[in-house]
Design brief:
Length: 633
């Protein structure tokens, strides 16, 4: 299984793979006799002063006898999860790069593990671009600059070039290395980077609060200098239902004074505090070659790499190929490209996609920009198309040449069609906060707790949800041909509620035929999915009540996809109003702050989804032109 492969990676790169490193998993892999092969590396450590006098901890791994011979570039990963490393670890996690020879450096950020200073979650950019002297204005960009400056002067026989990479929080830190960058930073790879933790990454999605994740992650990172993983024995569905709202759960956990939890409770809207932490607003023309990496099944930071690519690509200069952004999207969960990448849960993609990516894209990328070695041939975007399970290469993302926009309309009798509706139809369901739709099959363990199925939930069979009465599913008949959808999938929904607030969850699902082989009969796989909190329909900065029984338009991105629904499968679009407890319950009665909504505010309401010439609810997709569709068959 992909998750088992990834969890067995040693400690040097574990923090770049998942949001939580696992010492036990790494030790277990060694205990089971995993052979150590490859180039031998030697470990050392250092405390490095920043411009304000705070010292940060570094772990350095360099090939044996590399202080003489050809100079080597430096590959830096900065992390809040504990800098560790070994020769065995670097050879297992990055075999291609380790064999080629690099000085691998991993560093603890401020306030975590071996580093001094105060930890600040996703520390906002503070310093003025180009100002390298003010000790009061420190951030992750300035700390990276100071770290690079020290490494160039103190790591013997380096070639003066630095690459920076990391996954998740370290992916955010890798992007910071490319903002007002040190001249020696020649290439960066933000992989599943935390980019905007209110709009679409870890803590909120379109205004809806990711309750279990916010609860677990803040407790893990902010209550101690090391990581303290949350693992409660209860079904978290019952736990968060019992405590009514996040304020109740936070009080129970005694976390109300932790810095990020305080912001959750006081500022659930897109306030200046959250806006200041946004990375994408600082991204313009790529300062250095940038390789963005993401997974179609990333349960934590799917939004980040697509959004960073979009902003960097928009201002990329065609006449300056030395400053370019690239995008890779594969069939992976969070950091899954660090493993073999052939399987995810019940899904089998037929080939080792992670191994392929590392050997043909990641390693050649750094070899080119840090060693001038040819072999990196990616033009712009590499996408693994699920369904047909084949790599596709595009001149940009979303692709334009060979594709055309299309709309998938909701229709009468809960049907779907690529033709606009000619008659009116209404689909109704009752959404009851007392019995919210779970986001994965119960029991639901803590995010990173013992036995948790968190890492594979986006690939989980959705039949447990589509069988419920508190949702509506629209479907195409069994397909008589393959249908491909690509690009940014957008939901445009016309709906009403008898309440004064509400959430909207839309899923695009591939329903396998009952006789599908390998135990996949009837399997329902989510292709894209996303939530939108109705109170923010006119702007994320201020919440507004919904007028009861009034038809409103809700439009939001379900994010990117590249998927073929095969002949014999069905296309489903499901609409529901809760996704619990990953997202907190919407009371469906407007209150100023859902974080502290009283129990009396939570009421069952009737939801109506409309399909008509006036209210044409639909999804927007890209489809291959006929010639390309025929060629793909």
């Amino acid at each position: 299984m992909l998750t088992r492969v990834a969890l067995a990676l040693p400690l040097l790169m574990l923090s770049a793979v998942f949001a939580v490193p696992s010492v036990a998993a790494a030790q277990s892999a060694v205990a089971q006799g995993v052979e150590s092969k490859g180039r031998p590396y030697v470990k050392s450590e250092a405390m490095v002063p920043m411009r304000d006098g705070v010292k940060l901890h570094l772990v350095i791994l360099r090939p044996q006898d590399s202080e003489t011979g050809p100079p080597l570039p430096i590959l830096l990963t900065r992390t809040p999860y504990g800098a560790e490393g070994s020769s065995e670890g670097v050879n297992r996690s990055k075999p291609e790069l380790a064999q080629s020879g690099y000085i691998f450096v991993q560093g603890d950020i401020r306030g975590k593990y071996g580093s001094e200073g105060q930890f600040v979650m996703n520390r906002a950019l503070m310093h003025v671009s180009g100002n390298r002297t003010d000790p009061k204005l420190v951030d992750e960009s300035s700390d990276t600059y100071d770290t690079v400056e020290w490494m160039l002067k103190n790591l013997p026989n380096n070639n003066g070039r630095v690459g920076v990479l990391g996954v998740s929080y370290p992916g955010f830190l890798a992007m910071m290395a490319g903002v007002d960058h040190h001249p020696a930073v020649k290439a960066i790879s933000p992989q599943a980077p935390m980019t905007n933790i209110w709009l679409g990454d870890d803590f909120f999605h379109n205004g809806a609060f990711r309750e279990t994740y916010g609860y677990d992650y803040v407790l893990q990172l902010e209550r101690a200098k090391d990581d303290q993983v949350v693992s409660m024995p209860d079904d978290t569905y019952d736990y968060f239902l019992k405590h009514v709202n996040f304020a109740g759960a936070a009080a129970d956990a005694k976390m109300t004074e932790l810095p990020t939890a305080k912001r959750f409770l006081a500022e659930p809207q897109y306030s200046p505090f959250w806006q200041a932490m946004a990375v994408e607003t600082h991204l313009h023309t790529p300062e250095v070659p940038t390789l963005e990496v993401g997974g179609w099944f990333d349960q934590e930071d799917m939004w980040g790499p697509q959004e960073e690519y979009k902003h960097l690509r928009a201002e990329q200069s065609p006449s300056d190929p030395g400053h370019k952004v690239y995008l890779v999207e594969g069939p992976w969960n969070h950091g899954g490209w660090a493993g073999q990448g052939q399987k995810l849960g019940a899904l089998d993609f037929g080939e080792p996609t992670g191994t392929e990516y590392r050997a043909t894209i990641e390693a050649p990328f750094f070899e080119l920009y840090l060693k001038d070695k040819p072999g990196f041939t990616l033009e712009d975007t590499a996408s693994f198309r699920t369904g047909t399970d084949q790599w596709q290469h595009y001149a940009q993302w979303p692709p334009k040449v060979g594709f055309h926009p299309a709309k998938l309309f909701f229709g009468a009798q809960k049907t779907l069609s690529f033709t606009a509706p000619t008659a009116a139809y209404e689909a109704k369901y009752t959404a009851d906060p007392a019995s919210p739709v779970p986001y994965r099959a119960r029991p639901i363990q803590s995010t990173y707790g013992k036995g948790s199925k968190w890492r594979t939930w986006l690939a989980e069979d959705q039949r447990f949800a589509t069988s419920r009465p508190d949702q509506v599913a629209f479907a195409l008949p069994v397909l008589d041909r393959d249908i491909t959808v690509t690009g940014d999938i957008v939901a445009d929904i016309f709906a009403s509620t008898t309440g004064t607030d509400g959430d909207w969850v839309v899923k695009l699902i591939d329903a396998y035929p009952d006789d599908a082989p390998n135990g996949m009969g009837g399997y329902q796989m989510m292709v894209v999915d996303e939530i939108f909190r109705g109170r923010y329909r006119t702007g994320f900065e201020k919440a507004e009540p919904i007028k009861a029984n009034a038809v409103e338009e809700y439009r939001w991105s379900l994010h990117g996809a590249d998927h073929t629904f095969l002949k014999g499968h069905r296309m489903l679009v499901e609409v529901q109003s809760s996704w619990f407890p990953l997202y907190d319950r919407n009371p469906q009665t407007f209150v100023p702050n859902i974080m502290s909504a009283p129990a009396s505010a939570y009421k069952a309401e009737t939801i109506t989804v409309y399909s008509s010439p006036r209210y044409p609810s639909h999804l927007e997709v890209l489809q291959p032109d006929d010639a390309q569709t025929a060629a793909l068959k």
